[in-house]
Amino acid sequence: MHLIKNLLKSISQTTYVKAFYRLLAVLILFQISRWIFYYFNQDAIGALMKSDLIPILKGGLRFDLTTIAFLNLPYIFIQIFPVFNLRNKIVKIFSDFLFLAGNILGLLANSIDIAYFKFNLRRSAWANITETGEINNFFRLIPGFIKGYPEAIFAGIFLILSFVFLFKKIQKGTFVKSFHRRVDIFIVSLFPLVAILRGGDLAHSSRPLNFNQVGEYVSNPQQVALVLNTPFSIIKTIKSNAIGRMNYFSDEESLKNAFDPIIIQKKEFPKPLNVVIIIVESYSEEASGLFNQEWKTGGFTPFLDSLRQKSFYSEYSFANGKKSIEALPAIWAGVPSFEHPYVLSEFSGNKIDALPEMLKQAGYHTSFFHGAPNGSMGFDAFAKTAGIEQYYGKNEYPLPEDFDGIWGVWDEPYLQYFGRKLSTFKTPFFSTVFTLSSHDPFRIPEQYNGKFKKGPHPIFETLSYTDNALRKFFEYAKTQSWYNNTLFVITADHTSSFSGSKKFKSGVGRFRIPIFFYSPGIISAQKSEKLFQQTDISPTILGFLGMNTENISFGKNLLKNDKPNFSVFHFGNYHWLENHRLLVFNKEKPMGLYNFANDFDLKKDLSAKEKNQLISMEKHMKGFLQQYNNRLIENKLKAK
């Protein structure tokens, strides 16, 4: 203690104190950025109770301290390592550069997520930076980003100007000349620095701070992003695929009993139906008039609503992810994405039981259509590995005047092009089309201005445009010989970034999308009580086709009752839904059990009241996670 007192006295006006004050200023700005982030995203995160504030502040402080230590590690090292002479001009300039660069990047990351959080409902990760296919549009998107998200721009400017101002104010500090004293300071500083880097704990039994510890500070999963900060999320995912081997079950039989991803379809009534999957960009259940009674005028997708009522559908159907690049693996191969997109992971080269490949082997012609520039989102690369023979992107589209100026070809002309192309294919065929007009910045062709009703967000008008484009596509399709022998599946890639009504602002509501199976004269209209999800699509298609197959899928055949009635997605923690119950699970233990159909805000934890239900759902969740993680690691996503 005597040594520490002497050290504190000797450094009170030194460069060490200057460095401490600078880091303290960064910490304050990180805290300010957290509450700016909450202000602009409170619809997604939800209202905070008084009892939530202290835990969130404590958790946020802990994560901010660790993040700032990581961002400033080179700067701190120069400041405390005794061999560096801080009077040297080059050392000082280099040290200041490291401090400015690291913290400006950190504050910028927090600012960008003020806008970006609305799209994937979690803090950005390293995968968001390395996503493929978007760089060509980057400069075109900047004006739209500035216009569409001024709050993020102004927040970034405010935080960076404040940071630079404080940096300039905190300049004075004398250099400690005594080398021995600098060694003492280095030794004393080392232990708290290591503790902060680990999250405030040096105990041998503890682990470094990570995502799973956020649960200690939140009362519901939607608050996770408020405790975290974006630089922490990026740093922690640079070298991590967030997939580790799971060992909940020690023997294969117990694991298989908990969850079995092998789906066996025996040959029953072979029907060489054509298969057409239509993926509508950002098509949230909220836009429909079927299950959102808040739209007194009937919703924004009247044609799709009418078609759904003639189909096999459910009130509760879910996306397994929040990003476009996560949709195709889930829909085609039953492989969901959780903490990171599957197609961007090291496992993306795994062998998979992809529906296009399975149908190609059965004699189907396979194709994929997306009106964006070829290479966008890496769709062409994944399509090729999944068994797609012909890829049709913007490059193949013959009329450049139909380009929307940002993303690709307007939906209406592109869907007409899609229909005409289908008529040239030999039957049976499998084809998927992915629309794009209902994407930010939410524009429609000039000739349709004022033709569709506007909602509380611009996306609703664009969804009405796409709905009308699909109406015209089906009008054309009905005139073609292949129409009455075709199974249509209509779904979305993910929900939109906007949620207006209470039940769609919830964690569960933000993953609700339409999924329905339509085939005129073959499928009877039926509203199912089952939970639908994207990973159920390919097993169910195989069920409708009556093909003799055995494949790995993390979904279920909706025509059978051989698996739990479940859906699953990741939103801060794992969310396992069975019937009307939701289990929130953090890889180690349950975080709560809720009735998601009635308790939108997830306020009433039923864990104690429905203990048997909790145990059963936890077993299924653990089995699913062990099968998923271990099969990814072992490259066992293919049945044969």
Walkthrough of the structure:
This protein has 640 residues and is of the alpha/beta class. It folds into 2 domains: 235 residues, no CATH class; 228 residues, 3-Layer(aba) Sandwich (Alkaline Phosphatase, subunit A), CATH 3.40.720.10. It is built from 21 helices and 16 strands. It has an 8-stranded mixed beta sheet, with helices on both faces. The protein has a 4-stranded antiparallel beta sheet with strand order 13-14-15-16, with helices on one face. Strand 15 and strand 16 form a beta hairpin. Helix 2 runs parallel beside helix 5 and helix 5 packs antiparallel against helix 8. The radius of gyration is 27 Å and the shape is globular. The chain starts with a helix and ends in a 6-residue tail after the last helix. The mean pLDDT is 89.
Identify the notable features of this structure and list them briefly.
single chain, 640 residues, alpha/beta, Alkaline Phosphatase, subunit A, eight-stranded mixed beta sheet, four-stranded antiparallel beta sheet, 21 helices, 42% helix, globular
**Oligomer classification:** single chain
User: What structural class should be given to the helix and strand makeup?
Assistant: alpha/beta
The proportion of residues forming helix, as a percent range, comes to 40-55%
- Gyration radius, rounded: 27 Å
Number of domains: 2
Strand line-up of the largest beta sheet: 6-5-7-2-8-9-3-10
Strand percent estimate: 5-15%
